[in-house]
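> forwarded from #structure-qc
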């Protein structure tokens, strides 16, 4: 039995589909809520209800579990305080419960650039989560991933919605020269599934990314081309964009972007281009060949629809 945290998230839904197709029995950890979980259609999974702060609930969720895929985090719409609660303390609680339950493998998806000394809350939180895992008795694989893209992400879909909502110009963080190495979500999900196939793998940390280095400006132009929304880029100091993201968070029920997202763009975050092929023999897809999900969509309407759904969703 596998336990997946963060299974209703962008990466988690792809991972659950991969596991379901392989016939692996899966249990998904869901935080108790009045909201209906967004599990992928057609995926057979048990459900365990427990927050990462609920140690007793975690122990119950881990009964009979041999491996854990830990994807839950607060980065999408979280705050530094929520990062501490979910990513740092939550991971510590999960790892302790997994050790007590005799879990034989834990896979954690972290970020390139994670460092305890980082000035950016997201990267610091990921590093502290990694430390809890390394200090535990649980055999583990930590995948430090480059920025992940695909349907439902908080990266390209946000860019698409922003381009549709704002005419004429696109505010570019700085000069847009930050280097990225985007990895297709299905490639990341495949990597996770392949790691699970080798239960004797030693505890280790691997940095993985896509097959090319792109600047943020390169990515923005790809999204403009895919959506048909060509805009003139306008360089804006990142602190101003962080402030704008905080303002949107206070005004909108479902803001398209978190201020923490700019942690990704603060400095270049890349690894060796051959890291993933060398690690698992998996050749990742180029970004431009996997953007069909952006084409033909009414992204301005989608942005409005998300606000409406969030406004009318039960609390919890």
């Amino acid at each position: 039995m596998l336990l997946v945290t963060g299974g209703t998230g962008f990466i988690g839904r792809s991972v659950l589909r991969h596991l379901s197709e392989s016939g692996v029995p899966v249990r998904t950890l869901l935080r108790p809520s009045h909201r209906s979980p967004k599990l992928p259609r057609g995926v057979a999974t048990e459900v365990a209800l427990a927050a990462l702060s609920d140690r007793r609930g975690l122990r119950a969720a881990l009964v009979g579990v041999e491996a854990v895929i830990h994807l839950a985090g607060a980065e999408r719409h979280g705050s530094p305080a929520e990062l501490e609660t979910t990513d740092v303390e939550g991971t510590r609680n999960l790892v302790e419960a997994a050790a007590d339950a005799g879990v034989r493998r834990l896979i954690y998806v972290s970020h390139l650039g994670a460092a305890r000394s980082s000035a950016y809350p997201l990267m610091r939180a990921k590093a502290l989560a990694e430390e809890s895992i390394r200090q535990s008795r649980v055999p583990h694989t930590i995948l430090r991933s480059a920025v992940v893209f695909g349907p439902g992400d908080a990266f390209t879909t946000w860019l698409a919605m922003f381009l549709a909502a704002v005419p004429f110009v696109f505010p570019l963080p700085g000069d847009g020269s930050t280097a990225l190495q985007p990895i297709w979500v299905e490639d990341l999900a495949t990597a996770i599934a392949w790691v699970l196939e080798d239960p004797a793998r030693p505890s280790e940390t691997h940095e993985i990314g896509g097959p090319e280095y792109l600047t943020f400006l390169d990515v923005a132009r790809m999204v403009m081309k895919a959506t048909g929304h060509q805009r003139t880029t306008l360089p804006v100091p990142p602190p101003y964009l962080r402030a704008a993201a905080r303002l949107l968070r206070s005004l909108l029920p479902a803001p398209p972007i978190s201020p923490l997202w700019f942690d990704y763009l603060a400095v270049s975050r890349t690894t060796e281009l051959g890291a993933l092929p060398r690690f698992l023999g998996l050749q990742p897809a180029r970004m431009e060949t996997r953007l069909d999900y952006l084409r033909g969509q009414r992204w301005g309407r989608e942005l409005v629809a998300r606000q409406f759904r969030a406004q009318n969703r039960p609390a919890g």
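QC bot note: Residues 80-101 form the longest helix (22 residues). The chain has a mean pLDDT of 91.
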